[in-house]
C-alpha cells in the first residue's frame, strides 16, 4: 500500500507526524507545525508508532528524532524508498539530530531522507526548513547505488542517472491548490516512472554480471536483482490499472515475459535479455510521462 490523496485521512489539510523522545521538544515541534499551517499533527516518542504512521500513508510529513534510533530511522526510510515495506515511497521524511560527521552525513543522505535539521533548532530554523520543503521542486533520482529524492546541488557524474518529477503535496495543500483526483493521477504517474527506472537499474546490474564487467559479482547478487525486478514488475501491473493506460499493457506484458516468467521458472536472465528489459523499462517510463 502507498499513500494516495483519496486515502489520506487529512484530506486537503496538511498532516504531520512527529516522533520525538523529549516531551518538551515534541510539544515545541507539534505547536510549531500547527502554527505553520498543519491542520493535523500527531506525535509520539515511540519509533514503532512512527513506523505504523509511515505505513498508514495518512501524513504529508514525517519528522524523526535522530538523536536516538538513527540507524533504525535510516533503515525505515530506505525500506520505504525501495518499496520493501508498506510506507509511501514518495513520502516526505525529515530527520533532526546532532551535527553529523562526514561519514554519518553521507549515510543520512544515502537513506533517502528529504532533509536533516541540526539540533538544537529554533522556530526560525524549523520555519526556514519548512519553507524550503514547501517551495522545492521535488525530483527523485534513480542511480546505480541510490533511489530517492535528489539532494545534490552539483550535477551528477554517474553513468546511470534517471530523474522523475514528483508532485509537491506540501506546496499544493499549503497554497490551497490541492485537487485530490488530479494529484492522485500525478502521484501514480511519478511512481510508475520511478519503478520502471528501478527495473532498468536492476537489469543493467544483471547485464554487467553476465558480461563480467562488474568484477566477480556473487551469484546471489544477480538473484537479488532478479527478485527486485519481479517484485517491481508486479507493482507496475497494478499501476497500469490505476492509471487507465491500456496502451502500455503490451510493453508491460513484454517486461513480464522477459523478467517475471524467467525468474519464476528459475531461469537466469541473459545479458541480451537484460539489455532488452532495460530498453522496455525506459519506454514504459517515457510512455507514462507523455500521458502526463
3D structure, described in words:
- Strand 1 (14-19), helix 1 and strand 2 form a beta-alpha-beta unit.
- The chain has a 5-stranded parallel beta sheet with strand order 2-1-3-4-5, sandwiched between helices. It has a 3-stranded antiparallel beta sheet with strand order 7-6-8, with helices on one face.
- The longest helix is centred in the C-terminal third of the chain and has 32 residues, at 180-211.
- Helix 7 (180-211) packs antiparallel against helix 10 (271-291) and helix 9 runs antiparallel to helix 10.
- It is globular, with a radius of gyration of 20 Å.
- It folds into 2 domains: 5-145, Rossmann fold; 180-291, Four Helix Bundle (Hemerythrin (Met), subunit A) (Up-down Bundle).
- The chain has 292 residues and is of the alpha/beta class.
- The protein contains 10 helices and 8 strands.
Main sheet makeup: 5 strands, parallel
- The CATH architecture name of the largest domain reads 3-Layer(aba) Sandwich
As a percent range, the share of strand residues is: 5-15%
Structural class: alpha/beta
The ordered H/E elements are EHEHEHEHEHEEEHHHHH
Net shape: globular
CATH homologous superfamily grouping of the largest domain: Response regulator
How are the strands of the biggest sheet laid out side by side? 2-1-3-4-5
The domain count comes to: 2
Rg, rounded, reads: 20 Å
Spatial separation of the terminal alpha carbons? 22 Å
Number of strands: 8
- What's the helix count? 10
Helix content: 40-55%
Oligomer: single chain
Give the integer mean of the pLDDT values: 86
Low-confidence stretches: 1-10
CATH class of the largest domain: Alpha Beta
Enter the CATH topology name of the largest domain. Rossmann fold
